[in-house]
Amino acid sequence: MKIKKSHYILLFYSLFLITTSCSKQEKTEEGIIKINEKGLPVMQPLQEPLPKLSTAFINDKKYGSARFFEKIWSEKNDNVSFLVAKNGQIIYENYMGYANKKTEEKITKDTPLHIASVSKVLTATAVLMLIDAKKLKLDQKAATLIEGFPYPDVTVQTLLNHRSGMKNYAYFTYENNNWDRKKILTNEDIVKVMVEKEIPLETKTDTHFSYCNTNYAMLALIIEKVTGLKYPEAMKEMIFAPLGMTNTYVCEFEKDRENIVPSYKGNNVEIGTDYLDGIYGDKNIYSTPRDILKFDTARYAPFFLNPDLLKKVYKGYSYESKGLKNYGLGIRMVEYEEGEPFFFHNGWWHGNTSSFINLRKEKVTIITLSNKYTKKTYQSKKLASLFGDYPFKLNDSDE
């Protein structure tokens, strides 16, 4: 039987589609991990929107959010980006103050501000995606991934949950002139100082919780090792670009230093930069509330992470001391005896302060960013009581 040439073409095209689609997706029992042409897992926007909020609900919560904002951010010289959303839908947002006082550029919904330690939430997400794609393991030793890393018992998990026992690089590079502070420190330099100056652990690995920026600086190096890309490019390819986070980027000090939004002291004096501003992973992501909302909403997708791994993200790991506060894999939490746990992450770097609140049961996102030092940013937690059973009061006067 003679087969027409067009049939061969159709067969070849069908095989091409099958092979290319297989190279870009990995099926699991729980769903589909999207893999790009470079073999990297990438976040996907939520395909099926969460339930639409009623007009009555929006108006009620908008009123409460607006009253809260007007009470807290009442001074004319405040700098703030603020957003409240549920089910990925914006209920209330407000932007005020200066991105740059010299040029009189105002803060808008598109102004990327330094999100400080909220960057850790995104760094952790990239690491977890690599674990989900079986390119990395939670119990993998950091020494197998970072050349020269001097602590044999530290794992990816103990970096994520701050149980590595390492010292903060901001302290040990400053002490004893361990680093020439006229030179910008890099993530690789941290490892060199650890080795050359024989920096000891502060505590034995996985025995104590100690919040430490060094952990996430090392996770950035691990992302680079596994992906073959520099951290800023890896974050862009895996998270920022796929989610349409067009106003989000990782600051590369030498390239971006002249264009970043400056930060200020409470008295409006510009703070400037120092030798620690070249480190990323623990900080140095610039973003907007709207972009962070895109990221947070995408984490409700059924194919974001497999359920077992996701459970590990939102559980506490440190119970050696009494108290309600704990830390998961890239997220802070308060575990109450009754009611839902409260998930959040705060940040502070120079004059930049940030607060990211993720009420998972209610699917509520509250984001506050400021480039002028203030503790007001951290009062955003009080808004949780507007949406669920959380022990905060909107009229509390404490900071």
TrEMBL record:
- Pfam families in UniProt: Beta-lactamase
Superkingdom of the source species: Bacteria
Q: Where is the Beta-lactamase-related domain?
A: 79-375
For this protein, the record's InterPro entries field holds:
AmpC-like, Beta-lactam-related, Beta-lactam/transpept-like
Per its UniProt record, what PROSITE patterns does this chain match? PROKAR_LIPOPROTEIN
Cleavable signal peptide: none
Task: Output the Gene3D superfamilies linked to this UniProt entry.
Answer: DD-peptidase/beta-lactamase superfamily
Its transmembrane ranges are: none
- Please state what the protein is called: Beta-lactamase family protein
- The organism named in the record is Flavobacterium rivulicola
